[in-house]
Structures are given as C-alpha cells and as structure tokens.
Amino acid sequence: MTTVLIVDDEPQILRALQINLHAHGYTVVPSPNGKAALLAAQTHAIDVVVLDLGLPDMDGLEVIAGLRGWTDVPIIVLSARHGSHDKVEALDAGADDYVTKPFGLDELLARLRAASRRAGTNTAEPLVETAEFTVDLANKRVTRAGEPVRMTPTEWSVLELLVRNPGRLVSQQQILTEVWGPAYAKEAHYLRVYMAQLRRKLERDPANPVHLLTEAGMGYRFAQ
Amino acid sequence: MTTVLIVDDEPQILRALQINLHAHGYTVVPSPNGKAALLAAQTHAIDVVVLDLGLPDMDGLEVIAGLRGWTDVPIIVLSARHGSHDKVEALDAGADDYVTKPFGLDELLARLRAASRRAGTNTAEPLVETAEFTVDLANKRVTRAGEPVRMTPTEWSVLELLVRNPGRLVSQQQILTEVWGPAYAKEAHYLRVYMAQLRRKLERDPANPVHLLTEAGMGYRFAQ
DNA sequence: CGCCGTTTTTACGCCTTCTTAACGCGTCCC
DNA sequence: GGGACGCGTTAAGAAGGCGTAAAAACGGCG
Fold first, then answer.
1. Does A78 lie in the same domain as A59?
2. What confidence category does residue A121 fall into, taking pLDDT thresholds of 50, 70 and 90?
3. Do residues B25 and B84 both lie within one domain?
4. Whole-number Å distance, CA A216 to C1' C24?
5. pTM beyond 0.85
6. Which of A63, A117, A178, B89 is a Cys-bridge partner for A34, taking CB atoms 3.0 to 4.6 Å apart?
C-alpha cells in the first residue's frame, strides 16, 4: 500500500509509469507539472516521489525545495542529464536518489523499494513555530500552549498559505484565488472575516496581531 | 562528524577515497575485504558504508546481507557493472544506493550527504497501542481489554489507514480513494457509517470519541 | 437454493461552517 | 475638514456536513 507521486510532463511516460507501477501494487498519483505536484503532495499521503527534472512550469530543484520545506518524503529524481554537476545539485537540494534516462523499469522498481523501505513510517515532524503557536503542516495540526486548536477547512487553507510563505507578503488576490477560486478574486471581504477568526484563535491580542500582519492595500504577511 | 566504512580491494582506490573523504570532513574506516568490513562495522560506530561489490573473499551481496542482519546503516554500493540486474539484486539485498564506476568524487560526496541526511529517521512499529485498544498492523488484529475485536474487511482498511498515520489528519477523499477506489471519492457517506461502526467497537463512549476524531470538513484523525 | 455476514442506501435531526450584512474605526487624499 | 475607502469585528440566516439507526441489496458458503 505504497503511494507514489509521479511528476513528469510527458504524457506517455507518465501513463506508462502509472500502468506499470500500478501493476506492481503501487498506488499512483500522477502529476504533469510542478505546481500540481506540490498541491498533490499536500492532499495525498505520499510515500515516495518520482520526479522528472525537466518540467515546463518550474525548475525541478524548486519542486524539491518546495517539498523539503515541510516533508522528508523520499524523492527519486529522473533526468536525461548524465552530468555529475546536475546529480550533485539535485542530491544536495534534498533528493534521495538520482536515476539517469534511459532506465529499466526493474531498476526503478528496485530503487522504489529501497526508498520506501528505509522511509518506513513517516514520523518526521515539519513544524513552523512562533512564540505563540505551532503549525504542523504535514499533519494539518495547530497547537497553542500545548493545546490543539481546531481549524475549519477555510481557516486552515488561509493559514497554510501564509505559513508556507513565512515573512513574505501574500496579496489578497493570491489568497482569494488559491483558497476560494479565481472567481472570488475580488471578494476581499471574506478575507477580513477569516483573518479576524484566525487572529482570535492564534494571537495573544487579536486587535494587535504580531504574527498575522495586515499590509494595508497590499495583502497579509505571516511573521515568525 | 560522520564515520564512513569504505570497503574496496584495490589499495589505490581505497587510499584515494580515504584521503579525499578525510579532506571533506569524514572520519574514514578502510577495509580491504568483506570479512574485515563486517568486523569493522561491529567495532566502530559506522554512519555510512561505501561498498565495492568486487571483493576477493566473499560476494558483495553477502556483505550486504551480513550487515542488514543487525543494522540499518545506509549502504552505498560501488560497482563497475552497469547491468540493470546487478543493481536490482544489490538494492533488494538491502543497499540504499548504487553508483556505477567510473564516478566523480563530487557525486559520491553528494550521495554520501544524501544517505547520512536521511539516516536519522527510521524504524517501524507493528503494534499501535492506545489507552482503550491495541492494533497489531502486522497480524491485522485488534484487541480491546485483552479481548480480540472482530473487524470486517472494510472496517479494517479504514482503521489501518488511520492508524498508520497517527496524529495526522487524513482527508475523507484520501480514505475513500484508498479504501473504496477513486470512483468513490465523493461518497463521504460511507465514511460516516464506518466511522460510527469503528467507534462503537473501539471507543468507550462512541458519541464522544477520544481516538477516532472527526475534523469537520477536513477529514479524520487517529489520536493515540 | 437459502442463510448469514457485509456492504450500500435511505432517512432524519443536530451541529458546524460559510456567507452575508451591518457598523465602527482609522487612514488617505482631495 | 470631510468624504471615501479599506479594515476589523460581530452576529445571524442559509447551506451543507455529520452521527445514528435501520432497512435493503449484495455476495459467499454450505
């Protein structure tokens, strides 16, 4: 019952891997680009990632960095480049293994087994901590003074987006489109309601927030 | 300070690796053959093993097996053979990585870093206990107050998925796709029925669950 | 062919969450 | 100085999610 996230922009390769891995008992989550991959990694319980470096939308190293920001899931990189420099870069970015194309299916399967074997049960905890509260991104859990704080789906989506961009300004439009969808890009209204709720749950003095900051006219910012 | 056990029968390679790795901050334990390697692994606190497969006294796979009998230390295999079959054999015997000669020193260093990085977190637990019940994942058994509790296949699948992710929020979509299949991702209905059944069997007060928790709109969570 | 355990439907009442509205405060610009 | 605008806060109705029980459909096995 191992779930593999496969990231490759070539549909026929994606499809071939999907069929073959499924035939070998893996659950496969396919993803054609980097953005979808990062999203899928959050919505599914991924055990291993198979990542092709040549993606259309973003650099493969960015995908590795995006994953490594919050999870220790094994990453097996596929690449057509044999250069030693590329391998070093990928491995140092956080990849666990590097396979050069063309490769045999049996080799990939063996490396998958090796990766998932040593991963075992994923218990590493990627935590984002502040003086006031702690956000566990992998487990979708928020604690404050040791006590768990319950978040509604929308509250969590907003908080997660901010926490995944610590210190960075996130525009209202971006939050609205990512949480509510592109059609809601103008409903800045919702944001005020939810920021107030988040502050009431997480800030010591909700009227004078320290971690969930408003940048008037610009957006919001999470400060650690 | 990472200690690397290097096993290679060619003195000049052994020596070259020893010098280079030492220059990069590693403590090196050299070993010219398999027997000496197995001995050294027991007398030194080894963090990573670099193993050449072509040894004079014993098969490289035997060395891997000899190490895997008692330790999970990462093993990086060096080999001149490019054949896919050899890779599969070594990886399945318990190796973590496979590098074909000739290789660049920087690649080996990167793979060393990757191996020792992930070495920190692993170990599996087949028995999950709570104050109320015990789940034996390996034997698919649930006991409560010493008495075995009978589970239907579907009940077990749901329980297993939750218990394998202790403390982690599991979305209902994920449970549905993994237990019933992707076509049932929207049938959140089933889940309510089965969560109720699991609680009736496992919780002291099914109406106020302590271990099988609902996160409204988000999913379910198993709390130990 | 009929029984029995399991899964899937169905129905209903309760509760959480989302959405919307209203109002007060502060700030910026004219 | 005044108006417009953006923001924070609260409250309440609407909509949908959840728990529960029980009946119907299914499937394996004798």
1. yes
2. very low
3. yes
4. 18
5. no
6. A63
